[in-house]
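Lecture 7, part 2: worked example. A protein chain together with alpha-D-galactopyranose.
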Amino acid sequence: MKKNNYQFMLAAVLVLSFTACNQPQKNNVDTADSTAKTSAYQTEVDGKKVELFTLKNKSGATVTITNYGGRIVSLLVPDKNNKLTDVVLGYDSLSSYRKKGEPYFGALIGRYGNRIGKGKFKLDGKEYSLQINDGVNTLHGGFDGFFGKVWDAKQMGDDKIELTYTSADGEAGYPGKLDVKVTYTFNDDNALKIDYEAKTDKTTVVNLTNHAYFNLNGEGNNTILDHELFIDANAYTPVDSTLIPTGKITPVKGTAFDFTTAKTIGKNIEDKDEQLKFGKGYDHNFALNPHDENKAIAKVKSTSTGIILEVYTSEPGLQFYSGNFLTGETKDGKGGKSYPHRSAICLETQHFPDAPNHANFASTTLKPGTVYKSTTTYKFLK
Ligand code: GLA
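Predicted complex, written out as structure tokens:
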């Protein structure tokens, strides 16, 4: 009996290893365990179909995106050992993306990325009031921001998806009907390009961005305090205690905000500095040095995985947020993980926060007949 069992096992092992050896080699990278499940996203929200789309390149690196909030759900890129690693925080189900107080994981942000002081601004002499959703201010468009909208999606091959959304005149308090188009393109160099476009029928304000939370050690894998960061910015915009820019554009030299030479995020984050106190860490807009879209304005590196992220943009500003409001309280992250304090970095390309209330900041006004255009690329190397 025992002998029979042994012979059977031996035969099974031989058959299995033969089958494994003869499987066609699909990728030159290992597959990671964390891949978003399409079925968990197939539902309806506000009477519109929600789905999960996959962009995949030659090497097997993949990005999944849902048209709910235009969110990047997963981003699997090779590490130094060619193991595919998911470098963005997220959830396994749509319901978690819809929960109250969800911190905008992977979302498209609009109409106005970042804060508008007291939710008020003037255009052509008329005052507009927005939804107050962050203390006394408006953050990321308000409660009714683009992060919670179902976008129309058109997948164009393995490497591209186009998302469109029409925001009605007066939605969330903003004037003008705004037609928005966002295209995600993922190329064979592991670069994810995001092209934004918008048109309005009345003068309005626009500032679009993406709110991916990156952890280059792999999502859920400790904090990002060990990541090395370079930001090509000689100045930043200090804030008041509610995180609204004071209007000053201050040199970073000699401060914790100097990332012109790469240093770890953790190096100065606990310095005694009023600005770090207000942000509970880094949560500030950097005034980028003159650049074009072909020059990396920021670089992040994890020494443990060897993964490097380079950021390219047409925008003048970059919000560097060190995940200070993550608490690790809930266990609804991917695979039941919790995401602790500072376990991700956000690099949100943008015009400066509260620009409609600061004449010295580049204008975010969009007029009918003109087109808003903005481009950002997140490129991964190892
Ligand atoms: C932005 C803000 C932060 C925080 C996060 C979301 O990056 O600047 O203060 O609100 O979004 O939690």
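The longest helix spans residues 2-21. Residues 103-104, 114, 139, 243, 283, 319, 321, 325, 346, 348 surround alpha-D-galactopyranose (CB under 6 Å). Keep this in mind for problem set question 3.
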